[in-house]
Amino acid sequence: MTAPQPTAAELIAIAVRARLMRRLAWLAVCTGDDDAAAEALWQATQAAGEEAEALALLAGDAGAAWARLVTRFALAPAEQALLQLAVAIAVEPALGPLVAAAQGSTRALPGEALVKRLHGLPPRPIWRPTGALAMWALVRAGREAPGAALEYEADPRIVDWLFGAVSLDQALVLGVEPLAAGDVPGDWPVTATAARLARAVGGGAARLVVEARSGAGRRQFAAAVARALGRDALAVDPVVLAGSDWAENFMRLQRFALFADVALVWRAGAPDWPGKIPLAPLQCVCVDDGGAPPARDGVTDIVVRLPEPGIAAKAALWRRLAPQLADADAAIASIPGLAFGDLAHAARALPENIGEATAHLRALARSRMQGIGRVVDPAYDWDDLVLDESVVAQLRRLAFEARTRAKLLADPDSARQFAGAAALTALFAGPPGVGKSMAAQVVARDLGVNLLVVDLAATTSKYIGETAKNLSLAFARARAAGAALIFEEADALFARRTDVKDSTDRHANADTGHLLQLMEAHDGIVILSTNRRANLDPAFTRRIRHHVEFPRPRAAERARVWELAIAALGLDRPEPAAIAMLAERHDLSPAQIKSAVLSAAYAALAEGRTPGFADFDQGAGAELVKEGRSPAPPAVTPIRRTRSALRG
Fold first, then answer.
1. What pLDDT does residue 5 have?
2. Rg for the chain, CA atoms, rounded
3. Residue-level pLDDT at 203
4. Are 247 and 189 in contact (CB under 8 A)?
């Protein structure tokens, strides 16, 4: 069996041992001890052949790790000699006594004087704070006692590398992970970006800045560029690495990337990069829309705005990632605001049907919208709406436009011609409780997206600039998550204004204009909801594409709501005549009817019986009293008390 080839670390230890033996032989000769000198000379002669062989191997393939270390960190000959001596002690601790003897002391770690004597170096300092050994922490300097000469110890990770174990420092493990290869759309500029980056790196420090919304596939694109340049990629989470040890962690990460020749792909949110630490050649930074990379002087940024892939590209990717649901490719790909990376995330969950897939996508999107508004996972569908058919038809047209908008405006010329005019905006107007919020949920569920609910009255701030900041954040979060966006209490910002009387009016008008600009630039659906349509400024409402009026329900619609609400609580449906009488007697909104049904159920249960017509009638009267109206006089149903029972 062929003996395994020695590693660079072992070869260095052999060569250093031979040099130490020669040093000890010379010391023995100087002391005049003939017997000791003879023994030392004999041992030095024996080691000489091993040293020559070790150095020859170190200059070949076996020493590739050492050659890489010398080249990548630009080590001067004197620095190489010091590092080799420190590495040899770490590889073979038995050399410690030889080092101590060669130094004429009890110190087992080498000092500069020994290095210079072993290699015949001039008296100039070797280890300097600005030198490669110190800057990259290849060796650590310390003193045995105050006033003693510095002695040096090799960094354990460097020793591992010379043994062939190329691994991360322990402090980096939790913040760094390999970035696996994956599919990317064919129209992404991978090849062109790689060529551009290669030219920039050749002229000095450069980094790739990939700008897109969260989940759009920024890291996948960066990894594809790295592979095009012949490198593997590591994903870096700066939040984990930042803190009091940020500069140290940053240096060790750059050190590893430089030695291992890998690309570093930074997630968004990195603090500023330390200016004194050199950079590995290939750095990729992911930033959010409109974001900026961490500051670093002297670095050329190559910014790539990652285009959103089209429906066809998303569908093709879904078929590859989730072949078990390949027939759902068109439905999945047409979900508005779906990011490229979301498809891979959903496919890894191995959904068994389209419902599971869309639910997973909505859950993923909700995690991106924390901190602004109220995130709603839509629970209602078209069957839950009790509205006039004309209103339902308007809502269906709104949902259809949201699904097909990307395809219709896919052509750049079409998008340019209709910029601003094609914004998907809608105004839901009507009295409280008539179903505006429910309708928004129905549309969002039909599209397979979440609903981000923002109260404009609560968002508006008296402080200059705060309202605009809050609005911008809401749109950014909605876009990042592909969510439908609804602003409630729209009249808080779009109220009629006659003239500008003071600075408050001027700033309010500026906030209104800012919201309109955000709406026109947004590529998702935006709904404004108001209970007071008459208070809105016509100049603003004319810029809204869809106007949907929600009237108070008529008697037939109220009867249907009564039936659905009672059935939803698991109660037996009352006779049609009783339902019709409740609907005729009480002019309530759907929300008030649901509240009345709950009140009736609780009142009956408190008395240990099942609710009947009188309970529902009293609950409805209580709802009228809440809004200051007089309830209808008590009625006696013309039919017998209906039987109702809680199921289960």
1. 84
2. 37
3. 66
4. no
Half-sphere exposure of 246 (CA within 13 A, CB side): 12
With 0-12 / 13-18 / 19 or more C-beta atoms within 10 angstroms meaning exposed / middle / buried, residue 117 is middle
Return the residue matching tokens 């420092």: 169
Given a contact cutoff of 8 angstroms between Cβ atoms, the answer to whether 404 and 467 are in contact is no
Q: DSSP per residue over 574-641, as a string?
A: PPHHHHHHHHHH----HHHHHHHHHHHHHHHHHTTS---HHHHHHHHHHHHHHTTPPPPPP---SSPP
Residue type present at position 1: M
Please provide residue 586's backbone torsions phi and psi, each rounded to the nearest 5 degrees.
Answer: -125, 115
Residue 290 backbone class (left: φ over 0; alpha: ψ -120 to 50; beta: rest): left
Q: Of 311, 307, 318, 308, nearest to 343 (Cα)?
A: 318
- Give percent above pLDDT 70 in the chain: 86
> Which residues pair with residue 305 across a beta bridge?
211
Lowest mean pLDDT among 21-35, 58-72, 229-243, 541-555: 21-35
For 169, half-sphere exposure in the C-beta direction (CA atoms, 13 angstrom radius) is 21
Helix (H) or strand (E) holding 151: strand 150-154
**CA–CA gap between residue 419 and residue 425 (Å, rounded):** 13
Considering the chain, what is the average pLDDT of its residues?
A: 83
CA 449, CA 363: separation in Å to the nearest integer? 9
DSSP 40-59: HHHHHHHHHHHHHHHHHHHT
The pTM of the full predicted model, rounded to 2 decimals, is 0.68
Cα–Cα dist 287/303, whole Å: 10
Q: Would you say residue 96 has pLDDT above 70? A: yes
